[in-house]
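Milestone M4 deliverable, item 7.
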Amino acid sequence: VIDNQIIIELKSVAQITNTHRAQILSYLNISGIDTGFIINYCDPYFKNGIQRFVMNKTSRPLRETSGTSC
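Output delivered:
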C-alpha cells in the first residue's frame, strides 16, 4: 500500500492468472482503495508484466483497465 491510495502486488510467476486478479480485486474491495497494480517480474518486457485495476466509484464491481499478462 502506497500512501493509502494505491495497492501494488508484486509477482514473479510465468503467467498472471484469474486467481491473482481476484486477489488484488479483493484487496481493493476490502481496503476501499481505488487503484491497484499487479507487477509481474517474470515477463521479459517489464511493461507487459504490469496490469492496472481501478475501482469503479458508482458501482463497486472492479475492472481491469490495462495491461497484458505473461
